[in-house]
Amino acid sequence: MITRGKRRKEALKTMGRTLAEKVWEQHVVRRAEGEPDLLFIDLHLIHEVTSPQAFDGLRLADRKVRRPDLTIATEDHNVPTVLGPISDPVSRAQVETLRKNAAEFGLRLHPMGDAGQGVVHIIGPQFGLTQPGMTIVCGDSHTSTHGAFGGIAFGIGTSEVEHVLATQTLPAYRPKTMAIEVSGALPYGVTAKDLILAIIAKIGTGGGQGYIVEYRGEAIRNLSMEGRMTVCNMSIEAGARAGMIAPDETTFAYLKGRPHAPEGPAWDEAVAYWRTLRTDEDAVFDQVVEIDASTLTPFVTWGTNPGQGAPLAASVPAPEEFADPVERSAAERALEYMGLTAGTPLRDVEVDTVFVGSCTNGRLEDLRAAADILRGRTVKTRTLIVPGSMLVKLEAEREGLDEVFRAAGAEWREAGCSMCLGMNPDTLAPGERSASTSNRNFEGRQGKGGRTHLVSPQVAAATAVTGKLTAPADL
Amino acid sequence: MEAFTTHTGTAVPLRRSNVDTDQIIPAVWLKQVSRTGFEKGLFAAWREDPAFVLNNPVYQGASVLLAGPDFGTGSSREHAVWALQQYGFRVVIAARFGDIFRNNSTKMGLLPVVLDAKVVEELQAAAEADPTAEITVDLVERQVRLGESAWSFEIDDYTRWRLLEGLDDIGLTLRHADDIATYENGRQPWLPTTV
Ligand code: SF4
């Protein structure tokens, strides 16, 4: 890592600007000495979990939603992924509260059962609401996903949700900028998920704190939009509130024709502007991290934070391997919680459940990748395949992927956050172990006492076939 | 928001790094639609272990949390802040914080104080040696004090002023409603709307 903070300040006047700086500057409503910038927010995504207290706040102060036309809501965290009503009364009350609030404040809502419903970070891009150069927020840390289109997108807490509802702005200091340069090409069978897990293992769960990360380089350029979203999604797992990728032809091709994408002359105008959204040649980042994609292999986590990962071909590390005492004691704790013994080959770790889904890997491309591996095979473990949205579900069914999954013995579910977090009926029992395409392997994240290994959709599917952590190449 | 000027209280040492917000308050507790009652969910899984530090009666009534590095990583849930406050904490001291957690804390008047990892360990050791030792966190002077020792911490002037005055951000922003309207009028017409 190279830190260039000082040089940056001295050279600022003559230097070009980074993508993050360009997008930020474009959104400054007000700037005053000694105060954070007041930033305009182009799109506010809402879900049932982090919004009820914000709406209460509005009511108490007799405030309205300033821009219902820049706000969209969906139900995702609490929803069961089997048909039928929500049986848990507390979950149901939360979803009903969102419906009441959306009606009262005049907000567009995609409720359970609606064709537009889905995980909040899947539906924004799918509708074409997520576009280059925008500022996007949501009361959810994986809002960083939307940065894949070249905007600044970050998660906020409930106080800030209320602030955006009331003012369509947020006061914020501009984070520092970090470039993660990924050179070379990802080897065959190595995915965006493996790449981001390797990045997090390299820089650590705190490595990105205080930064907006721009992912750059050949391997990033070659990713599909789905892959780019997977990478940006997990920026927060490296501590970075936002991750972004400069828009290019791949971005424009993805957006063209989507319901909320510009049309006709407006499209041309938009594309002309979007083409300016790239870091200038002579711009300087506060920090640069370099990674060679061609050296990567399928990657899995062994611990209880996303930075505790290793190549699937490796073994469970011994705590003594960590020089830093803090990391060492974290590894000790993690191995105990995970029920793992140092030195065990990761390929020998047996799992009880496989989960393919979430805002990290619940898009059509992910489901196709899993289906390609499960086609003509049978799963050995409980396997949940959960599309990230109702539209993804429809598209997958059009291609017959649901048949592939069912024939293999996997469960094909309705759209939602599902087993990504223990808020809905899809959970691990205490001591159960999963291979999961989601983004967090925290203690209890998938249900109290549950043990999570984060993997790519390909590794998840191969693991379902053998019952042990497995790379597709090993089948 | 409750104003924060200076606070003196006893402290709990939490010798764990990377305490994510899923540990501070597990997801099942997030189903509540009210703003109260979250203290019961604070560190819910860990509190089931009788040996967990918060269960040690000598730390009853402590209001300063001395946490390991990277406290409050992960999920954006502000419930983590509410749970800590409602349990009785006014200050969290750590070497590093998750960005969103730190932001949420300053919106609610829970003071996140960044001190060097060595100093945090020193404070943890002091709280272990004498659980009745009182720590003073002085936002006016930007200083943490214990006995004869004092350490300075950094916090930007604006956030400090907001906390000292107990000001609510929305009210402050609405003073600039004209600026917002002006900005709105200049936005590109092709930017999407949800309608
Ligand atoms: S899928 Fe998981 S990470 Fe994504 S929004 Fe839902 S709960 Fe959060």
Would you give an account of this structure?
The complex is a heterodimer of chains A (475) and B (195). Chain A is α/β, with parallel strands linked by helices. Among the domains of chain A are: 40-172, Aconitase, domain 3; 303-474, Aconitase, domain 3. Chain A is built from 17 helices and 20 strands. Chain A has helices at residues 5-11, 19-26, 52-60, 89-105, 120-126, 158-167, 192-203, 218-221, 225-233, 249-255, 264-274, 325-338, 358-361, 364-374, 390-398, 401-408, 457-466; strands at residues 2-3, 28-30, 37-40, 43-47, 71-74, 108-110, 135-138, 152-155, 169-172, 176-183, 211-216, 242-244, 287-292, 299-301, 309-311, 353-356, 382-385, 411-412, 433-436, 451-454. In chain A, the strands form five sheets. Chain A has a five-stranded mixed sheet with strand order 1-13-10-11-12. In chain A, α14 crosses α16 (401-408). The model of chain A is unreliable at 1-6 (pLDDT under 50). Chain B is globular. Chain B has helices at residues 21-24, 44-47, 79-87, 99-108, 117-129, 157-165, 169-174, 177-185, and strands at residues 6-14, 64-67, 91-94, 111-114, 134-138, 143-146, 149-152. The model of chain B has no long low-confidence stretch (mean pLDDT 96). A seven-stranded mixed sheet of chain B has the order 4-3-2-1-5-6-7. The structure holds iron/sulfur cluster. Iron/sulfur cluster (SF4) binds at residues 76-77, 119-121, 140, 142, 358-359, 417, 420-421, 438-439 of chain A. Iron/sulfur cluster binds next to α5 and α13 of chain A.
